[in-house]
Each structure stands twice: as C-alpha cells, then as structure tokens.
C-alpha cells in the first residue's frame, strides 16, 4: 500500500519534471533527466545527507523505472497529459504528503533528531522540484509564493514528533492528511506564501 | 570563543542570503532556505566530501537555529538591516576568515592532504554563497571579479600548512588575519580579481 | 595507458570549462573553478553516490593538478585554444568515451547493479558539464539537442554488461569505441537528439 503511494508519488513528480522539459523544448535526454531528478532527487539528497549510500533510487529498480515510465508517457503524450491539469495537481499533492512523511521517518530511523528529521522530510518532498528548477535555470517555484513547501514542512514536523513519541501508526496518516488538506486548500483558494513583511501605511 | 565566531559567521552569511531573498521578492520560505544554505551550505558540502554524515549542520542545533534567527530578523527588519551596509560587510569578512580556517582544520583532521584540505577550507568559506547564487539563477558573485574567494584560499592554505607542520595555535589566528586584512583592503580600495589575461597593445 | 587517457580527458573537459569562463568574462577564480568542476565534477558526484569519500579527485593529486593546468593554459592562451576548435572536440569526445567506461566500472566494483552502474557511468561522463552549465546559469547543453549524453549512455551500458558478464578486457575498448564513433559521427553529420515527439500532419 505504502509502496504504491510512494511509486505513484514518484510517477507524478517525474511527470511534472518531464512536462517542464517539453515546455522548455529540451531534447529526449533532457526530458528523461528532468523526470528522474524531479521524481527521485529529493530522496537522493536525503540519502546522501544521512549517509545511506548508494541511495535507494539506485538500489530499488522500481523507483527509476517508474520515473522513466513517466518520461516515456510525457515524451509521446505531452499534449493529453498537460490537459489533465487538475488531476496532476491532485496526484502531485498526494506525492508531496507521502514523501514528507516517508522522508522524515527514514531520517529518524537513521538516528537524526526531531528537527533534523523534519528538515530532511521537507527536503525529500520538495528537493526534486528544486533541482528541476535549478537545472532549467529558474528560481525554484517553491520560493516564489506557491504554498507548497510549508504544508510539507508541517507534515514532516508532525511525523517527526509522532516518531519521537513512538506514536501509533495511524498518526502518520494524520500527518500526511494535514499536508494534503492544506496544500489542496491552497490550490483551490489561491492561497500563497507571504513575501517579506512590510509595514503597512495607516 | 571560537564557537561565538563560528556562529556569528553563520549569522552574517545567513543575513546576506536572506537579503538576496528579499531583494528578489521571494516568499518567506525562499528567504528561510536562502538563509540556511548561505549560512550552512559550505560546511554541508565539506562534510559530504569528507564523509562526515549527517553533517554538523544537522547535528548541532545552534547552527540551523542561528541561520533561522537571521532569516527572521531579515523577514521583519530588512529595511534597517540593508542600511547597515558596511557593518555587514565587516561581519561577513570575519565569517569568511573563520570559516576558511575552521573548514581547513576539519578537513585535515579527516585525514586529507594539504592541497585537499586547502580546497575544502575555501569551499567551506564560499560554498554557501555559491549555492545561494545558483538557487537564484545567478552566475556566482565570487566568479565575477569580487575579490572574495582568493583571500579565503590564502587563509585556507596557510592553515593547512600550519596543521601539517603541527604549528602552534596562534598561527591559525595569523591565517585568519591574512584572509581578513586582504578582504577588507579589497573592499576599501575597490580591488578586484583579474579576468582572463589579454595581451596589451604597445 | 588508461591513466594517460583519463588525465587527457580531465584536461580537455577542464579546457572546455575554462573557455566558458573566459567567454562569460569571469575572473581568474571563476575560470579555475569552472575548469575544476567540469574536469572532475562528474567523478565527484559518482564517488559521493557510491560512498567513496573523500572522492578520488581529492585523493589523487594528478587529477586536480591536470584540471588546474588546463585553467592556466586557457587563462593565458584562450585565443589560440579557441582557434583549435575541431581538435578540442575530438579530445573531448575521447574524454567522454573514457569516462563513461571508467565511471561504469568504478560503480560496478562498488557493488551496484547493471542499471545503476550504467547511470553512474553516464553521470561520470556528463556530470561535470552539467555542473559547469548550472554554475553559469544556463540550461545544460546536453539537454538542448546536442547528441552527447546518449553515446555516453550507450558506452556505459555496454561496459556494465561486459562487467556483469565478466567479459574480456578488449570489450571495454569496444564500449568506448561505440561511444566515440557515435559521438564523432554526430558532430560531423550534425545529428541531434530529438525533442518531444509531435504527431506529424499527413
């Protein structure tokens, strides 16, 4: 069950990466690499930081295979995929929620503190997208007002606390749900993250 | 004493990162992430390269706490902070001098050669700023004539030699002082690093 | 023999990195750093991912020395070097062929599967160029139609299969030759990698 969620997260993240490649008119290799780094990059960075080498993405073949499949789908069917719009956004939000929890748990199991595990959970969830944006010479989307990383940070924090307190498994679902609901509300209501505080005129 | 210097270096580096975030009109998360990577990124890259995982920045909570504090200060008070101008430049130069020495020593203790320790000392000192510039889709400032990395390289080289020769502790102060003085003179006199050599006409 | 090939690959890759630095009017440090990361970056990323730390580039001084030499040559003689044009392209293709094989073998020796070793072989061959482009705020050249990474991927795949099957040494030469010939034909004939598939009108 968890594996299915994780792989569907990788698939959707990789879809968004490959779509950026198509939009930027990159070649087939650019599309493939963007799919791979967007789908797997967050987990790879986390694994490097906790010293789990080679990273899972290089050990468990279903992970790169799933990201590659997303690249193939986008390569041939980018038109229809782009028209899915909202459904991708939903799947992407599920991926975000799964990754912030699974990344936090992996970091906590490696012996990291609550704070460090929270940070690495968020890195797992958003790191791939940041690498995608860096590779296409863009300022990362998550820094530009999109309310995307803060829900992941919340989900990661809750799961780190649950892990530390040795709480029951369903609480991880709660953590993921908090992230998912906040993210979906942000999309639907157009909420955005605030930029630097400016004193208002009276 | 050293810890205070190190943390004040992290704080100032993080300040400059957060200020770039404000100037680029990024959101609160972008400001926080730029503060964290600018303050801690050089040390994290060094730790990855010497195999010290998880990196210090994830183990010692004062490090990320200090960088986060700088982000909070900039978020609310970016106007006054920007007006500090010269004082930030001074603090930033102190941070540079401390990091090039402490980074070199950490690398040498991990068993690296004089040359490799020198390189990693310089990476510790300037790596955070490079990541900051990459994340904001800019060519790194230190490649564009700013005389910033060469003083750090000198400080790193001197400390690597002192470490190799098992020299007395005050010599590390000398290494840091050389870096600091060169950097401050460069700022005051407007010295810059030369670009590619071009044959002059007679 | 292999060492000579490897070092000549580092030298040529570093040349191309340094030339980009000159073209972008970076200072001496920018030219040096671009030479180092282009010549050594692919191998460093591979070493980090297989857990070989410190990476070879920090342990074997001929590697950084060779890259530094290339930076010095370009710093003083960028005009003549640029006029070499075709010869650099040939040397660069040889470097690509050597690195995709040596990177794959290093990954396989570290215990990685055929697929992972292939991926890391390709990363070794093209990673430095990608970092060079990221550091100069460009979308990586290898994503923009240049038929460069696909030959490396082929060479890596063949060597990974040879390694897995414990095949005789000359077959590695075949792997390198396949990469080299495909790459040189691509240069000569102007072949490029296809971008996203688009239904043709009848």
From TrEMBL, chains A, B, C:
The chain crosses the membrane at residues 6-22, 29-49, 61-77, 89-108, 114-135, 147-165, 171-191. It comes from Aeromicrobium terrae. This is Trimeric intracellular cation channel family protein. It is a multi-pass membrane protein. InterPro entries: Gly_transporter. Belongs to the UPF0126 family. One of its GO terms (cellular component) is plasma membrane. Pfam families: Gly_transporter (PF03458). It comes from the Bacteria. Its main location: membrane. It is found in: Cell membrane. Keywords: Cell membrane, Membrane, Transmembrane, Transmembrane helix. Residues 4-77, 90-162 form the Glycine transporter domain.
């Amino acid at each position: 069950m968890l594996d299915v969620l994780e792989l569907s997260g990788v698939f959707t993240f990789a879809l968004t990466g490959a779509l950026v490649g198509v939009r930027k008119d990159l070649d087939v290799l650019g599309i493939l690499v963007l799919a791979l780094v967007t789908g797997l990059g967050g987990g790879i960075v986390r694994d490097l930081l906790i010293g789990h080498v080679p990273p899972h993405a290089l050990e468990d073949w279903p992970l790169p295979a799933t990201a590659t499949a997303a690249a193939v789908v986008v390569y041939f069917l980018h038109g229809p995929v782009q028209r899915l719009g909202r459904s991708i956004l939903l799947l992407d939000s599920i991926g975000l929620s799964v990754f912030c929890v699974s990344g936090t748990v992996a970091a906590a199991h490696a012996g990291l503190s609550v704070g460090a595990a929270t940070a690495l959970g968020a890195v797992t969830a958003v790191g791939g997208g940041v690498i995608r944006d860096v590779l296409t010479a863009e300022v990362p989307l998550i820094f530009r007002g999109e309310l995307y990383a803060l829900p992941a940070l919340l989900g990661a924090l809750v799961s780190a606390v649950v892990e530390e307190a040795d709480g029951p498994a369903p609480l991880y679902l709660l953590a993921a749900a908090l992230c998912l609901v906040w993210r979906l509300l942000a999309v639907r209501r157009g909420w955005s993250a605030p930029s630097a505080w400016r004193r208002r005129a009276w």
